[in-house]
């Protein structure tokens, strides 16, 4: 349990940090990209207004540019344009303001844009604008290679630094998480030790009380007070044993107790023992058990698991209801499921079924007995065998508990 808590702590921290860095890097990247597009579009606006060229600016006008552009922009910008007539025939190509593009290359770029019928966008590293000009169509391409390269380098640097940061935090979390969960680990170990020690300490006085009650019964005969003492002593002894068993299951199954055993035979045997209680409660019990399934684990604990699931189902199945058990093997998984109809069970109750001391129907406690520890022990048993247990209801009138074991 503590190991899983530590893993969850590290995983949650890493996922949270990753999402924060990813969102920050993404937002900054989007802002930078939008700025590149906006700057390029402002230049294209000027070129569009002046038929594909920059206007001449007198020295005194250079500080009053209505577009807010630097006077150096005409000298820094690299662009070319292609002019089409109304029939789609190229009538003019201007590559005088760029050295890396010849006429043939300019025509190829223009043809791709012409076929796309898109008024503006990016073609490779060029931001283009297509517009009507005196009955013709002009396509202007602005070279944004430097800006885009800077943008890509920025993204690469951002995510590289973020990756190094993630790795550093991961290493720190590996070393510090043990200290963070140590108080929980200590409390958990003390709790388990307390339950185990208290269980052993309670067994002696309970045994003595029960023996004394039997002696009194022999001396004074049967009476309701002695019967109450014996009944409550037995109930307390069962509760103590259940708590000790739960504590042991949460510690896991040791390798010494793991053996390969015929699961199909054990399930069928346990299921057979519940035929009589089911008949008494007028419950239709059937099973579908795939033969020759075996598993490696604690045979006694698995037998107890099946008993708990069937006992819980018999207790809460409504009169003339249905109870069914299925065991099958699919690929590398063993599936054990117990289905039963019931009077009522909400989806909110489903989420608490495996909590300690939880009961779905408090008004039926006197009828069903138990302590609300059965399914907790079942969940601990499954977890100790590296399996998964889940519960579901589709109509709030039935319950299906499914256990999945690896093979």
Question: How would you summarize what this structure contains?
Answer:
The chain is of the alpha+beta class. 55% of the residues lie in helices and 19% in strands. The strands form three sheets. It has a five-stranded antiparallel sheet with strand order 2-1-5-4-3. It has a five-stranded mixed sheet with strand order 7-9-10-12-11. Strands 6-8 form a two-stranded antiparallel sheet.
What key phrases describe this protein's structure?
single chain; 407 residues; alpha+beta; five-stranded antiparallel sheet; five-stranded mixed sheet; 11 helices
Plain-language structure description:
This protein is α+β, with helices and mostly antiparallel strands and 407 residues long. Helix content is 55%, strand content 19%. It is built from 11 helices and 12 strands. α1 runs antiparallel to α4 (145-220), α5 (224-251) runs parallel beside α11 (374-384) and α6 (263-273) packs parallel to α8. The longest helix is centred in the middle third of the chain and has 76 residues, at 145-220.
- The amount of helix comes to 55-70%
Number of strands: 12
Q: What is the terminal-to-terminal distance?
A: 22 Å
Mean pLDDT: 83
Task: Supply the helix-strand structural class.
Answer: alpha+beta
Element-by-element helix/strand order: HHEEHEEEHHEHHEEHEEHHHEE
Spans of at least 5 consecutive residues whose pLDDT stays below 50 are none
Envelope shape = elongated
Could you give a short account of the major beta sheet? 5 strands, antiparallel
Rg (CA only): 38 Å
Strand content: 15-25%
Number of helical segments? 11
Strand order of the largest sheet: 2-1-5-4-3
């Amino acid at each position: 349990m503590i190991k899983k808590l530590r893993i969850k702590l590290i995983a949650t921290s890493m996922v949270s940090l990753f999402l924060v860095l990813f969102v920050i890097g993404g937002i900054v990247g989007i802002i930078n990209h939008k700025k590149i597009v906006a700057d390029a579009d402002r230049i294209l606006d000027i070129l569009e207004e002046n038929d594909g060229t920059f206007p001449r600016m007198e020295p005194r006008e250079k500080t009053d540019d209505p577009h807010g552009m630097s006077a150096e922009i005409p000298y820094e910008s690299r662009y070319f344009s292609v002019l089409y007539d109304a029939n789609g025939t190229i009538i003019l190509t201007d590559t005088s303001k760029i050295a890396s593009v010849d006429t043939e290359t300019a025509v190829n770029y223009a043809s791709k844009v012409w076929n796309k019928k898109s008024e503006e966008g990016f073609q490779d590293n060029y931001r283009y604008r297509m517009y009507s000009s005196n009955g013709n169509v002009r396509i202007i391409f602005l070279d944004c290679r430097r800006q885009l390269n800077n943008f890509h380098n920025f993204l690469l640097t951002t995510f590289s630094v973020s990756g190094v940061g993630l790795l550093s935090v991961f290493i720190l979390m590996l070393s510090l998480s043990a200290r963070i969960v140590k108080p929980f680990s200590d409390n958990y170990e003390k709790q388990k030790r307390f339950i185990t020690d208290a269980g052993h300490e309670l067994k002696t006085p309970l045994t003595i009380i029960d023996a004394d009650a039997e002696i009194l019964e022999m001396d004074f005969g049967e009476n309701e007070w002695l019967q109450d003492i014996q009944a409550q002593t037995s109930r307390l002894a069962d509760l103590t044993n259940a708590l000790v068993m739960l504590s042991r299951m949460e510690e896991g199954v040791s390798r010494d107790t793991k053996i390969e055993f015929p699961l199909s035979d054990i399930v069928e045997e346990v299921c057979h023992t519940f035929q009589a209680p089911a008949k008494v409660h007028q419950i239709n019990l059937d099973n579908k058990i795939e033969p020759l399934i075996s598993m490696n684990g604690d045979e006694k604990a698995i037998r107890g698991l099946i008993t708990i699931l069937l006992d819980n189902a018999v207790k809460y199945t409504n009169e003339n209801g249905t109870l069914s058990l299925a065991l099958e093997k699919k690929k590398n998984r063993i599936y054990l499921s117990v289905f039963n109809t019931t009077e009522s069970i909400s989806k909110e109750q489903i989420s608490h079924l495996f909590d300690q001391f939880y009961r779905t129907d408090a008004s039926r406690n006197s009828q069903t007995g138990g302590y609300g520890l059965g399914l907790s022990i079942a969940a601990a048993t499954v977890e100790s065998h590296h399996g998964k247990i889940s519960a579901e209801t589709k109509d709030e009138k039935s319950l299906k508990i499914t256990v999945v074991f690896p093979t």
